[in-house]
Amino acid sequence: MNKPHGGIIRINCNTRCLLGAACLFSLSATAKIFQCVENGHTRFSEHPCGKAAQEVKVAIPANLGQSVSHEPDEQLQKVTEEIARDNRRRELTRLIARKQSDLKIMHDQFSATMAKLETGLARAKSDYDRSWRKQGLKHKRSRFYDTVRSFKKQIQDTRRKFLARKSRLEDEIRELGKELKDI
After folding, report:
1. Among 83, 80, 89, 98, which Cα is nearest to 181's?
2. Which sequence spans correspond to the domains of the chain?
3. In angstroms, rounded to a whole number, what is the distance separating the alpha carbons of residues 115 and 102?
4. pLDDT tens digits for 65-114?
5. What are residue 8's phi and psi, to 5 degrees?
6. Is residue 38 within a helix (H) or strand (E), and if so which, with residue range?
7. Fewer CB near the terminus (10 Å): N or C of the chain?
8. Mean pLDDT, residues 46-50
């Protein structure tokens, strides 16, 4: 044991562990622990470490291994449950953030796809209108009309799929938020 200024006794970790182990795991009342001071450092051992070794008396309680009170177990359970709740809160917060990020990415992709489809539709409508004004394009009119219909269908399908995925993600985010709130 070291005594720094102020008279406070400091015990290093090895010493504390050894004393704790001696107290907790001693099965025999005849177990001996020796305290040895060498070069100003204190250590504990099961065997005498020199002439200066002093035997330390360790009181072994009569009810060793029997639980007198369940309070430590209850405290441990409460702490464990709180740690589990904190871990779940962090996990839910990360999931919500990830899903919100996915929703934003999906929305950005939807906007870019819709812009391309709208541009294609405008071009197809222009070609179709031009086919009515110019006699030489009369034979291509049905093909232009099919292209316009194709773009309209793609726009409709893209919008429908986006709204379904968006709704599903928003529902998941809402459910995760409820669970987070209830913790």
Report:
1. 89
2. 74-182
3. 20
4. 555 555 778 899 999 999 999 999 999 999 999 999 999 999 999 999 99
5. -80, 130
6. strand 33-38
7. C
8. 78
